[in-house]
Design goal:
It is a single chain. By secondary structure, this protein is α+β, with helices and mostly antiparallel strands. It has three domains: about 50 residues, no CATH class; about 210 residues, no CATH class; about 130 residues. It is built from four helices and 27 strands. Helix 1 packs antiparallel against helix 2, helix 1 runs antiparallel to helix 4 and helix 2 packs antiparallel against helix 3. The longest helix has about 35 residues. The chain starts with a strand and ends with a helix. The relative contact order is 0.08.
Length: about 400
């Protein structure tokens, strides 16, 4: 369906066609009609063709299906060349005289960028948590810090020796303007706009542009975005490398099931609605919270038992609580549940449902066996069965969300 975007009182229309594998086969662009109205016929077209592995024909690929050279017609006007680490993350990327060379840290986040042709020099990324969004960066003696808003989105940027610059985002999370924090300022510092897939249509993108509110970095003027595990090219609406998560999107290369308005892929792993990550986090935290409470009950029971019996004394002189066989079984079930739930974020909704379903089965089965024992064992068993029921309901929610196409 065509997307109509008014710009300065003029309406430019873009229409897309797709093949059965969700590959873009045709793009039609229509300039504004008389009086700036949205044209419904004519326009320029660009065709796209693919091989049997959903690879766009024209670019150069390596043996692992990664694009190493993207011709200018697909890369926003200038050819894009990319080299990779063995884990498929970008090692070096060059376009129009600007070259970015990256290093990654142990958590597979970009740790350092050496740029030539643009902001010359080495920029080091510093993090204050497990996220892949830097808290601040250092280039030579110049530091830049990112200031988060109340909802966690990027709200402002400050460079050493300069005033804070506000990053004004639209409802999609794109930086559409920047402004001085000085209340006496009467105008914006810059304005930016993009098409639906993130290609810049006006303004010069800074480090944060399309999806800049989500702290996805734009490293090149053409708008190429670094989205966690992969590099995204908005001019073709595709990633440069295959999806690391099987079934993470409609095909190995497309962005967000070709629905960039309503669906997001912020980490390069899995297309999802913006609220789906929040629901994953909520279920993840609640399940681990229940696991912790069950462990706490078991530990307190051991301590009470030790006080009654006097406990065993190790050679170190510390009391060693006795662990009963049923406690070993409960602890094994809790460990398995933790392992199944820890990597839930980089999965599709159907895979999330599968993992939660496995948690439900493990917790429910262990809980049923323990419920046949003595009162304490039966109590822990009941808690495990309740956890299993919670995980089962959550699994059903993600399964039906996937079936209905809302996640």
């Amino acid at each position: 369906m065509p997307t109509k975007l008014p710009s300065g009182g003029q309406c430019t229309t873009r229409g897309y066609a797709y093949d059965a594998d969700s590959n873009r086969s045709l793009k039609t662009t229509r300039s504004p009609g008389i009086g700036g109205i949205c044209a419904e016929s004519g326009g320029t077209t660009q065709e796209y063709h693919y091989d049997g592995a959903d690879r766009l024909e024209g670019p150069t690929y390596d043996s692992w299906g990664r694009i190493t050279n993207l011709p200018a017609e697909y890369a926003g006007g200038k050819a894009l060349t990319t080299g990779y680490f063995s884990n498929d993350m970008v090692a070096i990327q060059s376009q129009n005289g600007i070259s970015n060379m990256f290093q990654v840290d142990a958590a597979l986040r970009q740790r350092q960028r050496l740029q030539g042709g643009g902001l010359e020099g080495t920029e080091v990324f510093h993090y204050d948590g497990p996220s892949d969004s830097p808290a601040w960066t250092l280039r030579g003696t110049i530091w830049t810090r990112n200031i988060a808003g109340i909802g966690g989105e990027l709200a402002a940027v400050q460079e050493s020796g300069k005033e804070i610059t506000l990053q004004l985002t639209n409802l999609h999370g794109d930086v559409s303007a920047t402004a001085a924090i000085n209340p006496e300022a009467t105008g914006l510092k810059s304005t930016l706009s993009y098409d639906e897939f993130g290609t810049p249509t006006s303004g010069s993108p800074g480090p944060y542009a399309w999806l800049g509110g989500e702290q996805r970095r734009t490293g090149l003027p053409s708008g190429v975005v670094q989205t966690g595990a992969r590099s995204y090219v908005p001019s073709i609406g595709r990633f440069l490398t295959p999806d690391p998560v099987f079934g993470g999107s409609a095909n190995p290369y497309d962005y967000a099931n070709q629905d960039p308005i309503n669906v997001f892929d912020l980490d390069g792993n899995c297309a999802k609605k913006k609220g789906c990550r929040h629901r994953r986090e909520e279920k993840h935290d609640k399940i681990l919270g229940r696991v912790d409470r069950i462990r706490d009950r078991m530990q307190k029971a051991r301590e009470r038992r030790e006080r009654r019996t006097g406990g065993a004394t190790a050679s170190s002189g510390f009391a060693v609580p006795e662990i009963l066989p049923w406690e070993h079984k409960a602890e094994a079930a809790l460990n398995t549940i933790e392992n199944r739930i820890l990597n839930i974020f980089g999965t599709s909704c159907r895979q999330t449902a599968g993992r939660l379903g496995a948690v439900s089965g493990i917790a429910g089965g262990a809980g049923f066996l323990l419920s046949k024992g003595r009162p304490l064992s039966a109590g822990i068993g009941a808690s495990l069965m309740n956890l299993g029921a919670f995980a089962g309901i959550a699994a059903g929610g993600f399964f039906f969300a996937d079936e209905l196409g809302v996640c």
